[in-house]
Every structure is written in structure tokens, then in C-alpha cells.
Amino acid sequence: MRESHSCNYDPELYQKVKETVSMQQVAEHYGFQVNRKGLCLCPFHHDTNPSLRIYPNGKGFYCFTCGTGGDQIKFAALYQGVSNYEAAKELAAAFGIPVRVP
Predict the structure, then answer these.
(1) Which residues pair with 52 in a beta bridge?
(2) How many degrees, rounded to 5, is the angle at CA 57 between CA 13 and CA 22?
(3) With left for phi above 0 and alpha for psi between -120 and 50, is residue 14 left, alpha or beta?
(4) Which of 35, 60, 72, 101 is the most buried (most CB within 10 A)?
(5) Residues 46, 34: Cα–Cα separation, whole Å
(6) In the 8-state DSSP scheme, what is residue 43?
């Protein structure tokens, strides 16, 4: 019988990241320039005109062209090609959010 490891999901870490880091901060952390209308180029398809909406107040993102959307953690995970947990840990480290070590 396999032992279940729950160490790759930490709802407290996810909540801390989403409360501390705005979606715009995450996009800018990865080098995207968000315009005054809250749009930037979408990294999830070949985009020549900004089609990725960055919602204010940490409400996430949505691309009107390819349909990709989610929150800060999902953006980082998709962009880096890692799990949500790895993305949350990376964002916590980048923005100085303390991480509880099991």
C-alpha cells in the first residue's frame, strides 16, 4: 500500500500568495508590461496584440483569444511549466512570503 503525500498542496501558502501578490505584480515579475487598460501580451499563444486581461484586486487573468485564465498561481505554473505548488513556492520566495516547512 502506498503512502499518500499531501506535501504538494498547501492551502495556507496559496492563500498567502494570493493575498500578498497582485496578478499585475506576477505578470510584471515575469517581464510582461501591463498597459493602462489592464492588458498585456498573452504568453500562452502567439499574441501580437495584447489580449490577456489582468484583473484588478488580485482577481486573476483571462485571455480573450485562447481562453486561458486563472489566478496568480496558475499563471506562474503555466508560464514556468511547473505544478501549482512549485509555482506558489517560487512566488513566495520571490516576494518574501514566509513558507512553512513540514
Answers:
(1) 40, 63
(2) 45
(3) alpha
(4) 72
(5) 17
(6) T
Q: What is the rounded CA–CA span in Å between residue 21 and residue 40?
A: 18
- Residues 67 and 18: beta-carbon distance below 8 Å: no
Examine the pLDDT at 4 and tell me if it is beyond 50: no
Partner residues linked to 54 by β-bridges: 61
Write down the pTM of the prediction: 0.86
Asked if 13 and 99 count as a contact pair (C-beta separation under 8 A), the reply is: yes
Q: How many CB atoms lie within 10 A of CB 89?
A: 20
- Whole-angstrom distance, CA of residue 22 vs CA of residue 28: 10
At 30-53, the pLDDT tens digits run 999 999 999 999 999 999 999 999
Digit-coded pLDDT (tens) for 60-96: 999 999 999 999 999 999 999 999 999 999 999 999 9
Query: How far, rounded to the nearest angstrom, does the alpha carbon of residue 61 sit from its chain's CA centroid?
Result: 9
